[in-house]
Amino acid sequence: MRLLQLLGGLSFFLLSFGMAHGQSPEMEKYRQDPIFLKKTNQAIVLDGNVDEVAWFAGRGAKNFWEYRPSDTMQTAYQTEIYMTFDDQYLYIAAICHAPGNKYVTHSYRRDYQSSGNDHIAFVIDPFNDNTNAFLFGITPYGVTREGLISGGGRDFRRGWDISWDNKWTGVAKIHDKYWTAELAIPFTTLRFSEGSSEWNFNSYRMDTQSSTQSSWNRLPSNQLPLNLGYMSKMIWEEAPKKPGVNMSVIPYISGGALKNHEEGTDRVNNFGFGGDVKIGVSSGLNLDLTVNPDFSQVEVDQQQTNLGRFELFFPERRQFFLENADLFGGFGDSRINPFFSRRIGIKSGESIPIYGGARLSGKLNDNWRIGILNMETASKDDFTDEEIDYEPTYNYTVAALQRKVFAQSNIGLIFVNKQTFEDLDDYTDITKFNRVVGLDYNLASADNRWTGKAFLHRELKEKYSETDKIPFAHGFSLGYRIRTFSSEWEHQWVSEDYSPEVGFVPRNDFYRINPRAEWFYYPANPKIVNLNPGVSARVFWNPEVGKTDHEYQFEFSIAYTNESRLRFAFTNEYTYLFDEFNPTRLGEVYLPAETEYSYSSGSIFYSSDRRKPWQVQGRVEYGQFYNGTKLTLDGTLTFRKQPYVNIAMNYNYNHIVLPAPFVATDLVLFGPRIDLTFTKSLFWTTFIQYNNQIDNVNLNTRLQWRFAPVSDFFLVYTDNYFANNFMIRNRALVAKLTYWLNL
Description:
Layout: H1 2-20, E1 35-39, E2 65-68, E3 79-85, E4 89-97, E5 119-125, E6 133-138, E7 144-149, H2 156-159, E8 160-161, E9 169-175, E10 178-186, E11 198-207, E12 212-215, E13 232-236, E14 247-260, E15 268-280, E16 285-291, H3 325-329, E17 346-347, E18 350-351, E19 354-363, E20 368-377, E21 395-405, E22 409-419, E23 433-444, E24 450-461, E25 472-481, E26 485-494, E27 510-513, E28 516-519, E29 528-542, E30 546-560, E31 565-577, E32 595-607, E33 614-625, E34 628-641, E35 645-657, E36 665-677, E37 682-691, E38 696-708, E39 711-721, E40 728-738, E41 741-742
Parallel strand pairs: 1-3, 1-13
Antiparallel strand pairs: 2-12, 3-4, 4-10, 5-6, 5-11, 6-7, 7-8, 9-10, 11-12, 11-13, 14-15, 14-40, 14-41, 15-16, 16-19, 17-18, 19-20, 20-21, 21-22, 22-23, 23-24, 24-25, 25-26, 26-27, 26-28, 27-29, 28-29, 29-30, 30-31, 31-32, 32-33, 33-34, 34-35, 35-36, 36-37, 37-38, 38-39, 39-40
């Protein structure tokens, strides 16, 4: 009852706050005059010349504002954007002025990273909800990327996803002191409300030669560059129509061989086929079907050294789960998430075959979003790895509903169900079902000064013991941000028995508070963007023990005009151990249970100018660690020979000294990632990882040939060795061919 009263009071406060901030006249000063699109019957030739008359029939976008290093003036090197359309495509052209012709691109690889690259991005919000949008980007060398923006683009950790792939075309051409780009985006690629003639739009550009970032709609430097709260309009001469037949079939065939040397088993040859179907149910709603999905082409996870007591997070990389992923995975927060798609088809790091699945997701109208996901995984009889514990055939169902309220806020409901229909009488440790229901409220005021979230989730289990309490999770956050200051209050409460099987909740039975505050100073020094001191606290309590953890931190960072960054931090930590624990995870010596430790450390982080051929990013940390000491060195050293070669050496080294009977331990995780991009359609990536904490060396090399739009041939070779003696553990070679066919 106390929890419900608390949540009710917080929700009432948030709702009242949302109503009070539904409109903001202050935001009008950031808005540009709309773009006007006239329909064309003229054929648009994508050659980078921007010379068709149709480009200039309407009204384009000019007068870009500088975003970095200053946000108070229009940029010196301007950008012009023009648009037109026909029955099949939205066309976008850009003319990007620059002080010279020495542009930076890290490689020819699709889905480039924005930092340190010359590029322009176009952000399109067809539903005018300031919450979800499409991103299309291109560099002066014609390298493209596309992505999905969710959560208003206010949190780059959960709100930007460039893994999404779809069909469109873009070309670029370098001229004397300017470059141009022309894009053709099919209406079948976009989701939009049929009959709507006004969409939200913004554009963001990086120019490395002048060390400036700019945007069409003026954007305060305290906001992230793809924030959807700062957008203007693109107005159509006539509303674009729903495409006649919007259906794509994406079949694949694959074959390969696997040999487990560690187990001494014979080589296993595999052949597979299956595919996906994408059906546009409406202009805003899409149905995705998959049969026997194969994810062998997905890049290997980047390993992490684990010095903590809880599970590490690895992001979803499988394409089927990415579109509208925020609608399913955006509930709760990153550490209290009721649905984590990697729980489907993966167990203990091993792949579990998926028979098939379906997902209906998208917009019902301007205010309502819906998502329904259903997938079926295989039983142990279909496994090729006998090390996986028994796993019956499971059906996974997720249903989500989201309603926009006020300017940019929304309310969401989610239901998650994991269920098997097999007879489990012989397996007392496996349940037939595990379910979660949840309610979230996401707040964003019209001027983006206030953001927040409140959620309450309840787990429903098949079996309860007499001592089980109601399994629930509750969280609340409220943040305030202006140009010179930002602050946030966050608290969370997770019950002892809350552990959703399809979620990511590495820790339970705690109450946590996490207040943070930052200040931003903008000195007159032209080499410095801002000085940024900040303080934060993170404190955990257990209902029976009391305080179990805290982390108090002070940090001071300097952001430079050339995109380099320097940060100093001092941290004090306290840990109470409920159970015995070995921080290195090596050997059989443990810190005893029911002991407490207080320890402090200092760190320095530096990231150099990414425009240079050599770039370094590194952190040095030294200080106390439990009842001993720890020295940490980690970061990345990168060499680029544009646009063909990009080599990054990732390293993480920890020297840990704890009192006897522990011995001094060196944990080493390092390896190069080598990207060779021969053309814009032929890529070769090799990833090597040496990790002595898990006694493994991983080699993953992947050749990708994009022979047609969103159609690929992959050849993937993987080796795993023991780190201590380099004896082989397992080896696999896989080939896969996919083809995107529009019907």
